[in-house]
Write a structure and sequence with these properties.
- It is a single chain.
- Helix 5 packs across helix 6 and helix 8 runs parallel beside helix 9.
- The chain folds into 2 domains: 255 residues, Aldolase class I (TIM Barrel), CATH 3.20.20.70; 88 residues, Immunoglobulin-like.
- It is 25% helix and 24% strand.
- It is built from 12 helices and 22 strands.
- It catalyses: Hydrolysis of terminal, non-reducing alpha-D-galactose residues in alpha-D-galactosides, including galactose oligosaccharides, galactomannans and galactolipids.
Length: 446
């Protein structure tokens, strides 16, 4: 059988592969993760108490719904079936009752695994067991999977991560897919190569050579074409509005950076190296991490309250996942104040889902203005002062924001929770504190 005839036969058998398209992540995910506060010191009592704390602290009422258990829950695989077994001493009742408890409280439950032979803590990984594990998670009632990148057997992440994506989708249960790939292979640049067969776009998928995620368009060659070139070489229905050539086709969020530490310089480094805004949006988000694994670390004490407010503001306007890393059973008043700022969270969860860009900068890049449009013709701005020794005024014009200079906007300070007045053409954030921000929302007056 010729290679092309074999390819046609496989296409007829497999059908047209679909993207992630699981209906999840229309806004950045919000929740809690166990790793930063507890590492491997987790058990079912901790998870049960955290589920209850999500309710009693009212965190769930402002949108934090995922309770995600990180590494160290897995123990071994069942001989013969290879089904994963939870730690019998720390999770004697298994995982399903924890998911049931979360659901009974209106929450969602998440687990951790790894696209390698082992997890980062040396527990059983999912590489080669993707279908078994996905079916197990779905049977337990899992709603979220954080998928790490240790012990990868030298297999590129572009090959490993789509396999679990397909396995999760095949279960029929919507499971949020958080790729903790650390940004080592620039997941926002991944593209899918297409072959035009029967006027349809078919992805190449190992082991049938029917689908290969490529690092960039230069790695695609005739007769294979990238999505961006498909309209020139194929006829038929070209899904131009879809992100089939980006990481959004693989996961609901993807790490864009390595792990960061709970300090100002590290936080800013991950912020500055986050993935491009154009590659994120409803259904798939750039994830610049927080302190350690995919967390928003407010409450563990490595930064000042002013710095944490800056951090939370940037993650909100940057549409980053808002995953809490501290022990929510024992939060300080400042921690709770930051995490429950409904006005800042509203920027994160705005349905337009557009990640901010830097629109202005001054003093050798030490003061920045980040802006993003909102639904209903609104606009959000964060004025950031990177200096550590003096407050500073930071101006911005409507032209820099891409707004009509003749339009008047009512401006509200989202941390002072007060209206600042109506402005036209420009606005200046006055005396922004060292390592501080001013976060405002613009609403057109007519």
């Amino acid at each position: 059988m010729s290679a092309m005839l074999l390819l046609y036969s496989l296409v007829g058998w497999l059908g047209i592969a679909k993207g992630l398209n699981n209906g999840l992540g229309l806004t950045p995910q919000m929740g809690w993760n166990s790793w930063n506060a507890f590492h491997c010191n987790i058990d079912q009592t901790l998870i049960q108490e955290t589920i209850q704390a999500m309710i009693t602290t009212n965190l769930s009422s402002v949108g934090y719904v995922y309770v995600n258990m990180d590494d160290c829950w897995a123990y071994a695989r069942t001989p013969g079936t290879n089904v994963i077994i939870p730690e019998p001493t720390t999770f004697p009742d298994g995982i399903a009752p924890l998911a049931q408890l979360a659901h009974a409280n209106g929450l969602k439950f998440g687990l951790y695994s790894d696209a390698g032979n082992f997890t980062c803590a040396g527990r059983p990984g999912s590489l080669g067991y993707e279908t078994i594990d996905a079916n197990t998670y779905a049977g337990w009632g899992v709603d979220y999977l954080k998928y790490d990148n240790c012990y990868d057997d030298n297999i590129p992440p572009e090959t490993r991560y789509p396999v679990m994506r397909d396995a999760l989708n095949a279960t029929g249960r919507p499971i949020f897919y958080s790729m903790c790939e650390w940004g080592v292979d620039d997941p926002w640049t991944w593209c899918v190569c297409f072959l035009c067969i029967r006027n349809a776009y078919v992805r190449f998928h190992p082991p049938w050579i029917l689908y290969v995620l490529k690092r960039d368009e230069t790695q695609c060659s005739d007769p294979v074409q990238t999505f961006s070139n498909a309209n020139n070489v194929c006829s038929g229905n070209v899904p131009q509005s879809s992100h089939f050539h980006r990481a959004g086709d693989v996961g609901n969020s993807w790490r864009t950076t390595g792990d960061i530490s709970d300090n100002w310089d590290s936080m800013l480094s991950n912020w500055d190296n986050n993935g491009p805004a154009a590659d994120a949006g409803p259904g798939g988000w750039n994830d610049p991490d927080m302190v350690f694994l995919c967390c928003l670390e407010v409450g563990n004490g490595g930064m000042t309250t002013t710095e944490y407010i800056s951090h939370f503001s940037l993650w909100c306007i940057g549409k980053a996942p808002l995953i809490i890393g501290c022990d929510i059973r024992d939060m300080s008043a400042d921690t709770k104040m930051i995490l429950m700022n409904k006005e800042a969270i509203a920027i994160s969860q705005d349905p337009l889902g557009q990640q901010c860009t830097m629109v202005a900068s001054q003093n050798s890049g030490n003061q920045n203005v980040y802006g993003t449009p909102l639904s209903n013709d609104g606009y959000a701005i964060v004025f950031l002062n990177r200096w550590n020794n003096s407050a500073v005024n930071i101006p911005v014009t409507w032209t820099q924001l891409g707004l009509n200079s003749d339009t008047s906007y009512s401006i509200r300070d989202l941390w002072a929770h007060e209206d600042l007045g109506v402005y036209k053409g420009s606005f200046t954030a006055e005396q922004v504190s060292p390592h501080g921000v001013m976060m405002v929302r613009l609403t057109p007056t007519s």
